[in-house]
Amino acid sequence: MIVPNHWAEARRQHKTSSKQITVRRFGWSLESEAEAQAMAEQRANEALTDLLSGRQLDRREKKAAYNGADGVPIREEVLTRLGETVITRNAYGAHCLNTPHVLFADIDFASNVPRRWTAWSMAVLLTTSLMAGLWMQSASVALVGAFASLLLAYALAASAHAIWVATQGGREAMARRRLNAYLTQHPLWGVRVYRTPAGLRVLATHQTFRADAPEAQEFFSAVGADPRYVRMCINQRCFRARLTAKPWRIGVRAHMRPRPGIWPVNPEHLPVREAWIERYEAQARAFSACRFVESLGSATEHIDVMPVVELHDRETRALRQGMPIA
C-alpha cells in the first residue's frame, strides 16, 4: 500500500512522418514534488520505449482516486499518518482508513439479482414462447414471445429472487448465517461485527493479513463481501473502511468542489473546497459511520490489530449508542 503526499505528471512524444505518439504517466512521492516529477519522467520514458517496441499499453493513465487505478497508488488527500495506517479524504469528502494488514470486509445488503437467476428466467420465458409458437404453428408468436422474454426476464428474476430472499429470513439473516458458518469452520478466527447503513462491516482481530492473501480472498468469498470492495483491496494491496458519514446521507447535497474531488487540487480551487469541507465536517459530527454490534469467534486479539480497532471505533463513533449511522 502506498499513499503519496505528492503527485506529478510527465508527457513524452514521438513523431514520424506518418504519426505521432504521445504518452503520459504519473509520478508520486512521500517526500517532495521534485521526486514525484522525476518518477513521472522516468515512467513516461519507459512507457514510450515500450510502445515503440510494439508493446500494447494505455497511452494515458486514468486520474482515479482509488478504484480502477491498478498499478497507481491511492490518490487522495492525506489527513493523518499513524505508522502504516493512513487516513485520507476520498473523492466525495469522507474520511477513509487505509491499512495494509488489518482485514475489513464490507457486506452490502444489495438488491442486485444474481445473473444466474436472470439467465434462468430468460430460459423459462424463451422455452415457453417457442412451445407456444409450435403449438399454434405460428413463427410470429414465437418471435413476439422471444422479444417479450428479453423485456420481462429481469422482472421475473427479480420477483422470484425477492420471494426466495424473504423465505430465507431476509438479507441480513442470510449474511449472518454465512459469517457464522465460516467462523464455525475456522475456530481460530475472531471478528468484530458492525452495522452500516447498507449492510455489515466485519473486522478480523485474531491476526494480520495481506489483501491478496488466499485466506483473505477465501473469507471475502465465503461471507459475500462487496465485489467492488474486494477488487479495490487487491488493486491497492490494502484494506479500507469509511470513517465518517456519506455527505448525501446527512443533508449535504452539494458535491465537494471542484469536481471531481481527486487530489491534488489546483491551489486556486482550494478555498471553495475548504468551505465545503467545513460544512461537511460540522454536520458529520452528529453521525456515526457504523455501529458496533458484537464480537464473534476467537477472543484472540493480535497486538498489531488492536490499535487499528481503537482508531476505527473512535473515528467512526461506533460505540456511541443512539447516534444515527450514515
If you had to describe this structure to a student in words, what would you say it looks like?
The protein is α+β, with helices and mostly antiparallel strands and 326 residues long. It has three domains: 6-61, no CATH class; 82-108 and 170-316, no CATH class; 115-167. Helix content is 40%, strand content 20%. The chain contains eight helices and ten strands. It has helices spanning 33-52, 115-136, 139-167, 171-185, 214-223, 227-236, 270-284, 306-316; strands at residues 6-15, 20-29, 77-82, 85-89, 95-99, 104-108, 190-196, 199-204, 239-242, 291-297. The strands form three sheets. A four-stranded antiparallel β-sheet has the order 3-4-5-9, sandwiched between helices. It has a four-stranded antiparallel β-sheet with strand order 6-8-7-10, sandwiched between helices. A hairpin with a 4-residue loop joins strand 1 (6-15) and strand 2. Helix 2 runs antiparallel to helix 3. The radius of gyration is 25 Å and the shape is globular.
Question: What is the count of β-strands?
Answer: 10
User: Any idea what the shape is?
Assistant: globular
Structural class: alpha+beta
Biggest sheet statistics: 4 strands, antiparallel
